[in-house]
Amino acid sequence: MKRLRTTAVHGGRDDLADLGVHALPIDLSTTYPVPDQAAGGRALQDLAEGAAHAASPVYARLHNPTVARFEQALAALEGTAAAVAFGSGMAAVTAVVQAACALAGKPHVVAVRPLYGGTDHLLSSGLLGVRTTYATADRVADAITPDTGLVVVETPANPNLDLLDVAAVVERAGPVPVVVDNTFATPVLQNPAALGATYVLHSATKYLGGHGDVLGGVVACAEERAAALRQVRIVTGAVLHPLGGYLLHRGLATLPLRVEAAQRTAVELARRLAGHPGVGLVRHPGLPGGDPAGLVGTQMSGPGAVLALTTREDPAAVVARLRLITPAVSLGSVDTLVEHPAALTHRLVPGADREASGVPDSLLRLSAGLEDVEDLWDDLDQALSGGCEGNYIKPSSSRTGELVQTG
Ligand code: MET
User: Fold this and answer.
1) Residue 357: CB partners within 8 Å, gap ≥ 6?
2) Which InterPro entries does the protein's record reference (predicted)?
3) Best label site of 175, 184, 214, 363, fewest CB within 10 Å?
């Protein structure tokens, strides 16, 4: 078992030297010549029953070697036997619910808010034929019924950075499988499977890809669970495109470096924001009070690179004044992204439910990128200071040496 940074670079590449190639091969085939019809049929049967691979991939909806390489690498990072990739994070959530609830004949879900708004909406909508009970993390056991197929949690939570104790939730869930959305932490900071989670889910679009140019989802789990997820993926066609598999696999190599650098920036921005007169409260697990249960340093190796804040002024007005930071949903990209959850990512969650789960309408979410922290601070400071530059000497060419007062 190699260390994290080594696994990030070498995972899923064991056979490249034998193939005589250095970069990851991309297989764009939609169909594959079968040796003969009977052998092709056996391969199709194996894959349809959930096998990780077969004598022939048969058809790209059943299996793709480029995507399988990414899955192998991600599983190694999460410490699971297998992983199954999907065309988006929401496709991954859907497949987990279908496998744990529909396939198992248990149509009840227990979920802890807040969750990413899309997940919340999917679970609340009834679209997948499940009914959902929302519970606080300490009341999960009370919410479980004989037909509960799945417990859904996310830590750190999107968008307010609430943390929950995964091992404690797993214990309260008893025999019911628990899915942990690990998108914010990434395998660099947290391995929920080691804490007993059945499924570890990522919107791969975020940190795993890391450059804002690939949409995907992935679930790390035991082989038996992966087989059911593959069955669902084949039947529903929720596949990841091989070019996406390639980009996500390439992204893994720099994942530890990107997460560590962005995290350092988030820690510094959170500290400065907490003292800014234009800011109400700041949520980040690295701040005093941001981790009441003491999970950073135990469950998580670091506080992560996403933070949230409330502003004294209309949050939309503050965002509109930003010049460097990108006003966009998503997170985990090389550039710093900011968005207003009540307007965007969590728009489909009823306002009262958002408020009750610690997501006020005034909250902004910020995902630290890889820019120089001083440039990010300059941008935030001027936006939070009503468009006037803050109380600092801004060392730009147009304002060299000029002390600009807060408006
Ligand atoms: C369309 S909302 C964007 C999705 C993404 N999961 C986010 O939290 O930013």
Assistant:
1) 113, 114, 134, 160
2) Cys/Met-Metab_PyrdxlP-dep_enz, PyrdxlP-dep_Trfase, PyrdxlP-dep_Trfase_major, PyrdxlP-dep_Trfase_small
3) 175
Q: How far is CA 196 from CA 11, 199, 249, in A?
A: 23, 9, 25
Strands 363-367 and 337-339: antiparallel
Question: In the block, which residue shows the tokens 């060392």?
Answer: 395
Kindly report the protein residue whose alpha carbon is nearest to atom 5 of ligand 1. 330
- Quote ipTM for the complex: 0.97
Q: Is 116 a catalytic residue?
A: yes
Tell me how far the alpha carbon of residue 393 lies from the centroid of ligand 1, in angstroms.
36
- C-alpha–C-alpha distance, residues 161 and 270, integer Å: 12
What's the CA-to-centroid distance between 407 and ligand 1, angstroms? 34
The residue from 206, 258, 283, 365 that is catalytic is 206
| Residue ranges of domains in the chain | 4-252, 255-404
Q: Whose CA is nearest to atom 7 of ligand 1?
A: 330
d(CA 274, CA 287): 9
**For residue 328, how many other CB atoms are within 10 A of its CB?**
15
| 80's tokens | 């699971």
pLDDT tens-digit readout, 21-61: 999 999 999 999 999 999 999 999 999 999 999 999 999 99
What pairs with residue 282 in β-bridges? 309
Helix (H) or strand (E) holding 380: helix 373-384
Distance 158 CA to ligand 1 centre (A): 9
Which among 93, 345, 359 is the best mutation to test ligand 1's pocket, defined by most ligand atoms within 8 Å of the CB? 345
> Under CATH, which number does the domain 255-404 receive?
3.90.1150.10
Residue 363 has, within 13 A of its CA and on its CB side, a CA count of 25
Q: For ligand 1, what atom is nearest to the CA of residue 159?
A: 8
Is residue 2 part of the annotated active site? The answer reads no
Q: Tell me which of 5, 42, 61, 271 is the catalytic residue.
A: 61
| Residues near ligand 1 (Cβ within 6 A) | 116, 118, 158, 203, 329-331, 344-345
Q: Which fold has domain 4-252?
A: Aspartate Aminotransferase; domain 2 (3.40.640)
Query: Is 353 an active-site residue?
Result: no
pLDDT at 386: 87
Distances (CA, A) of 65 to 56, 81, 343: 10, 17, 39
Distance 68 CA to ligand 1 centre (A): 25
